[in-house]
Amino acid sequence: MGITPFEFKSRLILTELLGRKAATLPELTDGIKAVPLSSIYHHTHRFLQQHHFLSPEPPNDFAYWVTNMLNDEIAGEKLASIDVMQFGKLSDLRRRFIELLEDHLKNAEHSVSRRCPDGEEFHFMSSHIFVVPTNKVAANVQEFRDCLKTVSVHSIYFHMFEAKLRLEKGDNDFSIWLRSAGKEKEAEQISRLDPYTFTLEGLREKLLEIVSNGAS
After folding, report:
1. What pLDDT is attached to residue 84?
2. Residue 172's domain spans which residues?
């Protein structure tokens, strides 16, 4: 039997305001505990989606708000230091934010009462993701490489980021398929990449470099 063709997909995003906001660090912590996991994903990946030509990408929304609206640089630095790449489940990522914030609040009394200016509250949002097919299908590694050259960065984002974390597949779609095609070395190289250190176009170039070596 041959390998199953790889179908490149993309996604459309509908952003929803959840009707919950925070003006203090304790309120932010309570919100992170209560909102759906889709909100955690939105606030840790929004910058990457919107500013995909920047590298490295700006910090997550929580770190940005705490640093710039609460003027709590220590807490902001702690939130920005969380390595999203380490997490395979959004529930574990949420738990890490909560642990860090609760620990900080215990040891920094000044952070408990610090309040943002009126009108600068943190508004929790969520992303509804609609997966859509593209016209790109690859039956072998050569075709996969050719498709990778022309698909949108939104498709690359979907297969590299959302498959692993939001869909909790444990790995990105490209590595999973390449293993099925007998390209274990290339699959492992892609699995070991830290995609958060690339722009999406830079990530495309790196993926093409790895896949081209395997296709030759």
Report:
1. 79
2. 6-11+128-215
